[in-house]
Design a protein that fits this description.
heterodimer; A: alpha+beta; PH-domain like; 11 helices; 51% helix; rod-shaped; B: 419 residues; alpha+beta; binds zinc ion
């Protein structure tokens, strides 16, 4: 069958035109009932556009006009399908395209997840040194305000930091002596502001911009001054490695990747949250191992007991950091301790504090 | 033989699409969204629009959606490139310890809202310029930023008046949108008035607001404010235990208030389809293109039917989920004990199973909603339309150029997208 009827819209005016269609050797001819030529479309330039079931709607590619030809005659439609490459009545081209889209989408998803796993932390590590110290200082001040608000439950303000109340200054002096020795050995380019705060958890945190908080619970749990020094050295490792800024950049990268590009469908929020948590856990493991390595070397350089951080970690179950630790269970602590102990000390350790100073430091928060 | 084309059915709009085909489209889409973590959404949106447009017949001829998924994808990538510096700026502003930092949250919210409205208008332009009818495309004039200011101000007013300004907002915004909507050289306009919608919607608004007002009133009448003020000033932890003895009848007032809030919620739920029906009728009947006027004969009962269909399918899906949960949990438990998983591994597998279940359920309900309520509203809304004078539609001349999909991308990234 090489001829039939259809409806033609010329793309210039919305008038509906009854049309005669004839299939030539290389082109489709559209004429009006009087025989005037309305259009001549080469088969190679014909494309099929969206239409309801039972209608074949054709357009001419790259013509600049939106001329349309509608055919309801199934036999004629089949005849055009046979001649025009891009017309796809059986849907096989469409199915092939769909399959390749799905394959590419899955490949893109996998590569984006891999980018999240390898690329984002690597990129954040490269970018962190580029963040100006001024931005980091401001960031530190903002984070400090939030952290203080969260930790200082009783609104003690200045008094939240130990060392100013009666009986506490000797402890503060001991703490400063210990910190000074570590700081000199570390020789970091940023000014540090350490303090002991009234919190019962065995923990310590380093904020961006050089603020370091040692919780009083940590001193209570320690059996000798070098264990406290070891944890402080670990926190100095975070400062030296700029881990806060790196973590922040990683978080931003993950938000971008998993908040905007991936996971934008109903129920996708949960998938995104799970993926982010897993990735962040894997990052934080590397970050902690890096800080441990730094701490061991720094303790050695400062002439302290390298293994003290390990014994402390074992006692408090590896939970030096707040946050998710379900997955960072005991095997993790064992690995961390083993890594610390792998650093061979160069000399005989000299304790950070003598017995009297250590006793004073244990009373830095009122000696409870 | 001239039977190749049926005579143009004048003065009617018909929807030809089958619900079964739409279900198939949505189900396949849901599965592919899951597998591709959402990247498939550009293709799904295009498929859905092609289906809905192609099956909508106006005065004997069907619409055509001419957009492609790749355009949407590229628009989205552009939008991300625009949004990254903006988000970074907001982040830096939040670090400022002065006035800017204090208000940075509010500033970010308002400007992102504005940007969202900007995106809505530009996305509408994309969709219109990809809509073809009788070989002529629609297009949209007007400045997106101007629409965005208008919409942001109106939404603020609607928020402050607890929704009372909403009819006037939507009338004003639709006037702007339709005034700037053109089919070839034929321009649209909107003749619906805010007052009309206001008067029809007022009883519904009162039905929800009065119980909430009663709840607040009963609480205000019973609470001893001097005691409350003192307790708040002292930042006390035991506000309630100090307040209760000083305010006789507080327990009854609280129970009454909770009951009233529940009543308001139930009224809202029951009346929502009614509101939707009158909104669709009001909006459709306000549409004009030149001399062409539109009237909607949508019946409220039909809209309730659409929601009833949703509830029925959702209940069935709930039952199916309930029947699936126990065997799944058993299977996960069996597998974990079988392979001798460590507690950490077991917790991980359990969480993964839970997550999978949640995503399955959420996608399921969303698919049911789209295939019942959204589909029915489109179908019913279109079938209920009557056109007054379609002779003008025969002589429209082509005008307008296709626009980029950046607006669609922005709307997608800011989660304000429509269909
Ligand atoms: Zn750490």
């Amino acid at each position: 069958m090489t001829a039939g009827h259809g409806i033609f819209f010329d793309g210039a005016v919305s008038a509906r035109q009854e049309a005669k269609i004839a299939l030539g050797d290389t082109a489709l001819h559209v004429t009006n009932p009087d025989g005037r030529l309305l259009a001549e479309w080469p088969f190679g330039e014909i494309e099929e556009v969206a239409a309801p079931d039972g209608v074949l709607r054709l357009a001419r590619r790259n013509s600049g006009l939106l001329a349309r030809l509608e055919i309801r005659d199934a036999a004629l439609a089949t005849a055009i399908d046979e001649r025009a490459e891009a017309v796809d009545r059986s849907g096989s081209i469409h199915r092939r395209q769909r399959a390749s889209v799905i394959a590419w989408s899955v490949a893109a998803t996998v590569s984006l997840v891999l980018l999240g796993y390898y690329g984002v932390p690597a990129l954040a590590e490269r970018l962190a040194p580029l963040v100006p110290p001024e931005v980091e200082r401001r960031l530190g001040a903002a984070v400090d305000m939030q952290v203080r608000g969260m930790l200082d439950k009783n609104n003690l303000g200045e008094g939240f930091e130990c060392g100013a109340r009666p009986g506490e200054p000797p402890g503060k002096a001991a703490f400063e002596k210990m910190f000074g020795r570590l700081e000199r050995a570390a020789a970091l380019p940023v000014p540090l502001r350490p303090s002991v705060i009234r919190r019962e958890e065995a923990n310590a945190i380093a904020l961006p911009g050089g603020r370091i908080y040692v919780f009083e619970g940590l001193i209570a749990k320690a059996e000798n001054p070098d264990e406290v020094a070891g944890v402080i050295a670990h926190e100095l490792g975070h400062v030296a490695n700029r881990d806060n800024t790196t973590t922040l950049l990683q978080g931003a990268g993950l938000s971008l990747l998993f908040g905007m590009v991936l996971g934008d469908f109903v129920g996708g929020g949960a998938v995104v949250l799970a993926a982010r948590t897993l990735l962040q856990l894997s990052y934080s493991r590397d970050v902690e191992l890096g800080a441990d390595r730094y701490a061991a070397r720094l303790m050695d350089k400062a002439g302290g007991e390298v293994r003290a951080l390990g014994t402390m970690l074992e006692r408090i179950g590896g939970a030096t950091e707040p946050g998710a630790k379900i997955l960072l269970d005991h095997p993790e602590t064992k690995a961390r301790v083993a890594a610390i102990n792998a650093v061979a000390p160069k000399g005989t350790p000299v304790p950070f504090l003598d017995a009297a100073e250590w006793a004073a430091m244990r009373r830095i928060c009122g000696g409870r | 033989m001239n039977g190749a084309s049926p005579p143009a059915a004048a003065a009617h709009v018909r929807f030809l699409g089958s619900r079964r085909a739409y279900w198939r489209l949505q189900l396949r889409g849901a599965f592919l969204l899951l597998v591709t973590l959402g990247i498939y959404r550009f293709w799904l949106a295009t498929d859905i629009r092609r289906f809905l447009w192609s099956n909508t017949e106006v005065a004997g001829d069907t619409l055509e959606y001419y957009g492609t998924p790749l355009e949407l994808l590229v628009g989205f990538l552009f939008a991300i490139a625009i949004l990254i510096p903006i988000y970074s700026l907001f982040f830096l502003a939040a670090l400022d310890l002065g006035v800017i930092g204090q208000f940075s949250g509010l500033i970010a919210f308002v400007s992102l809202f504005w940007l969202g409205q900007y995106a809505v208008f530009r996305a509408r332009r994309y969709r219109l310029t990809r809509t073809i009818y009788r070989g002529i495309r629609f297009h949209q004039s007007g400045a997106p930023w101007r629409y965005a200011f208008r919409a942001t101000a109106w939404w603020g007013l609607t928020f402050l008046t607890l929704g009372l300004a909403y009819p006037f907002q939507i009338a004003s915004l639709e006037r702007y949108k339709l005034r700037n909507t053109h089919y070839g050289d034929l321009s649209g306009r909107f003749e619906g008035t805010g007052w009309r919608l206001f008067l029809r919607g007022l009883p519904l608004w009162l039905a929800v607001i009065i119980p909430i007002g009663l709840a607040l009133g009963s609480l205000i009448a019973t609470i001893n404010f001097t005691v409350l003020g003192d307790a708040l000033a002292e930042n006390a932890d035991d506000i309630l235990s100090r307040l209760a003895p000083a305010s006789p009848g507080l327990a009854i007032a609280v129970v009454f208030a909770l009951a009233m809030v529940l009543v308001a919620f139930l009224f809202g739920l029951i009346l929502y389809p009614l509101f939707q029906a009158l909104l669709v009728r009001w909006w459709s009947s306000g549409l004009r293109f030149g001399a062409l006027a539109v009237v909607s004969r949508l019946r409220t009962g039909q809209v309730y039917g659409a929601y009833a269909r949703f509830i029925a399918w959702a209940l069935l899906f709930c039952i199916a989920l309930g029947l699936l949960i126990a065997p799944t949990m058993f299977a996960v438990d069996y597998i974990t004990t079988r392979i001798g998983a460590s507690p950490v591994m077991r917790e991980l597998l359990g969480t993964a199973a839970l997550l999978g279940g949640y995503v399955f359920a959420a996608l399921g309900f969303s698919t049911i909603y789209r295939s019942t309520v959204i589909f029915s509203l489109w179908q019913l809304g279109m079938n209920a339309l009557e056109l007054s004078d379609t002779s003008q539609l025969e002589t429209v001349k082509a005008a307008g150029t296709p626009s980029s999909a950046i607006g669609e991308g922005l709307a997608d990234a800011l989660h304000v997208g429509g269909l």
